[in-house]
Structure formats: C-alpha cells, structure tokens
Specification:
Elements (H helix, E strand, L loop, with lengths): L1 H14 L8 E2 L23 E8 L2 E9 L4 E9 L15 E2 L13 E2 L11 H4 L5 E4 L8 H6 L6 E4 L1 H24 L3 E16 L3 E14 L28 E8 L7 E3 L1 H8 L16 H12 L20 H16 L4 H10 L3 H24 L4
Antiparallel strand pairs: 1-2, 2-3, 3-4, 4-9, 5-6, 7-8, 9-10, 10-11, 11-12
C-alpha cells in the first residue's frame, strides 16, 4: 500500500503546486506564534492560497496568506512586540519577493525582486510607473531591526492610491501602534491581522489586483507560553512614561475603503468577521463574544480618544474616569467636610476670624483638590518601570 499512496501523493502535489513545502508551507506550525493561541484565522477558503512563514536572515518575522490568482495577500499576521535580527532597519530597493512561490526548490529566505518574473506573485516591475504605492499590510514602523526590513516584501503589499495609503497610516496604523504600546505596557502582547478584501477588476500592469478595502484586527492578551515564545526572547526597550496602563484584555477592528476621501471605520472583531464572511479571526479574545462585545468596543474607543479608562469598573457602564479617581475624591471630600463644614471642631476653632473668607477658602480648596486628583490619577496610571 505504501507505493500507491506515495504515487497518489506525488500526483496530487503536482496538480496543486500551491501546497509545496518549504517556507511556503503546508500549514503555519513553523511560525504559529504570530497567531493568538497559535491558531490561524478560520474561514478564508478557496484555491490559489499559499501559506508563507515570512523568513529573512534566518528569522521568521510574520506570516502571510497569499492569493496567487490576484497576486496580493489575503492577510498578514504579526505581533507587538516582536523585533528580531541584529542589523538596523532599512527599506530595500527594489522590494523583496518570495522565490518559493515560483520554485519550490529555491532558498528559504525572501529575496530582492530585481529582474524577477512571475506568473503567481507581484514583482517590483509591476509597480513601476503604475501610480500606486506598495501598501504594507504588516507596517514597517511597528517594530525595528530586521523585522521592519522584512515587511518590505511584495507578498506583504497591495496596490494603494497614495492619498489612501497616507490616510490608512493616520487613521489606522498609528492608532493600532498606540494601542499596541498600551497593551505591552500592561504586561500583555498584541496579536494583529491586516488584510485586503474585495479585489477589483483594476489591475496594475494587467497583473496585480487593486483591493477595494483593507482591514486590521487586534487582540491584546497574554502570551500562551512565555518561556517558548520567540517574540519575547529579545530585549526591547520598555514603553515610555507617557504610555497608559490598561489592565484588561481587549480586541478591536478597523476597515477602510481605499479611497482618500473615505474615512476608516471602527468595528468590533465580530462585526469585521461578518463583513469578511469568515468564521473567526482570533480563537478567543475579550470583545469577540456576544456578552462583552459592546463594552469592550466602548472602552477601546475611550483609549483611542485619550480618555483614561478605569479597568476596575465591572458594572457594565463605560468607565471613563481616571483609575483612583473615586478613592482620591473621597479623601478630599473628607478633608473638605472636616475643615469647612459647620459643626466640626476644626471649623468652630477658626470660624470666629475667618467667616468672611469661607467662599474664598471654598473655591481654593476645590481647585486644589481637582489639581491633586488629576496629578494622583496620572501617577497611578503611569507607574515607573
């Protein structure tokens, strides 16, 4: 039975060259740590889809599901923090491509696409004089060193109008980076997915499809195995004092029609899944279930709007007061009552000579209390590392 099974396997592989092994892989096990709980998104069905563990200078830096029929990625999966390599980051010119898509015997690492020709993937020549930017899915700026350089592969890019590309950075990438830093400051790790949807009939160089929409989904949660997590093995500088601490897991999503005049939309991950018609983007993350979807969304909107969230509020209401606000307010309310309200001994002792100054003292005490409450809240929300 062994020989017939082997022969059948070889025939099947020849008929479906997208399934070749190597760094274009059968599954994502070799780079599974880029997915929450090491489980890739579920429901992105269809042929002509390749799984790529994106490898550069002997490191895996992110993972990509790639469509060879339209020559753009379906999504890239990446992490924050996860910066690997020794060399400083740089933007290669021309960009890289994945040689194993065209030749299963090629080397493991991505390579420069100089003079490259392909019937299955975009090359640098396709973008020349096209009027479109190479739009990163995994952003160059999110990490540093060789992990940033590795993002400049055309298997991680889609054609984008320049104005839409700029707006995408302003409305989504910069916001996702800020949320990722909050997540890390709170002792968690951020899992991110960025993808392209709805390929149009517009093709650059009559080959590479221009997507109608681009999306990003976030999941801030604990790493499943701290000791065996390659992303947490490198020492990276701590987040700055200006980064808030938010002591809860959370998820969030963005979607944008890639026209400069179209604003990016904020969604829950569940809403994004419905729009993409997929089963799941993350296997489990706060905000991806029905009972906590809306509350999580409102709290993350508060973070985006630079409102300090009180993560200890479990009442189901939006918690937008600073952490420690209630406790600090009680202290000042007690002092205020003890000193300025008639009937207390301290008030009686000073009332004979200061009765006329009571309104002034009242105003001064109120202003001082507000200043100290806010100062105390900022200190609690931004502890020293």
């Amino acid at each position: 039975m062994v020989a017939p099974v082997l022969l059948l396997s070889l025939v099947w592989a020849a008929g479906y060259p997208e399934t070749v092994r190597g760094k274009v892989v059968q599954d994502f096990k070799e780079c599974g740590w880029f997915f929450q709980n090491k489980i890739p998104p579920q429901g992105f069905l269809g042929r002509s889809r390749l799984r790529i563990c994106q490898r550069f200078k002997n490191h895996y830096h992110f993972a990509t599901l790639y469509r060879t029929d339209v020559r753009i990625p379906v999504y890239s999966a990446y992490r924050y923090p996860c910066s690997m390599g020794e060399s400083e980051a740089y933007r290669p010119s021309p960009w890289f491509h994945e040689p194993q898509i065209d030749n299963q015997n090629a080397g493991n690492d991505m390579r420069s696409s100089t003079k490259a020709r392909s019937t299955k993937q975009a090359t640098d020549a396709d973008y020349q004089d096209s009027g479109y930017d190479r739009g990163h899915l995994y952003p160059f700026a999110l990490n540093d060193k060789e992990s940033s350089t590795a993002t400049c592969t055309l298997t991680n890019a889609v054609p984008e109008e320049h104005g839409a590309n700029v707006k995408w950075y302003q409305e989504v990438e910069a916001v996702a980076e800020r949320l990722s830093r909050v997540c890390r400051k709170s002792g968690r790790t951020m899992y991110l997915l960025t993808g392209a949807a709805n390929p149009t009939r517009t093709k650059i160089n009559n080959k590479v499809s221009v997507p109608r929409t681009v999306w990003t989904a976030l999941c801030c949660t604990a790493s499943p195995d701290h000791n065996r997590d390659p992303c947490l093995g490198d020492r990276t500088p701590p987040e700055g004092q200006d980064v808030l601490v938010y002591n809860r897991d959370f998820s969030f999503a963005f979607m944008k029609e890639m026209k400069p005049e179209r604003a990016a939309k904020h969604l829950t991950v569940r809403e994004l899944q419905r729009k993409l018609s997929v089963d799941s983007l993350f296997i489990s993350c706060r905000g991806t279930s029905d009972n906590d979807e809306r509350q999580t969304f409102e709290e993350v909107e508060g973070l985006i709007e630079n409102k300090i969230i009180n993560p200890l509020n479990n009442t189901g209401s939006p918690a937008l007061r600073p952490f420690g606000y209630e406790a600090t307010a009680v202290i000042f309310r007690s002092v205020y009552t003890y000193l300025l309200v008639p009937g207390h001994s301290a008030f009686l002792a000073v009332s004979q000579g200061t009765l006329l100054l009571a309104p002034v003292l009242h105003g001064a005490a109120t202003v001082a209390a507000l200043i100290l409450v806010n100062a105390f809240s900022v200190l609690i929300n931004n502890p020293r590392d």
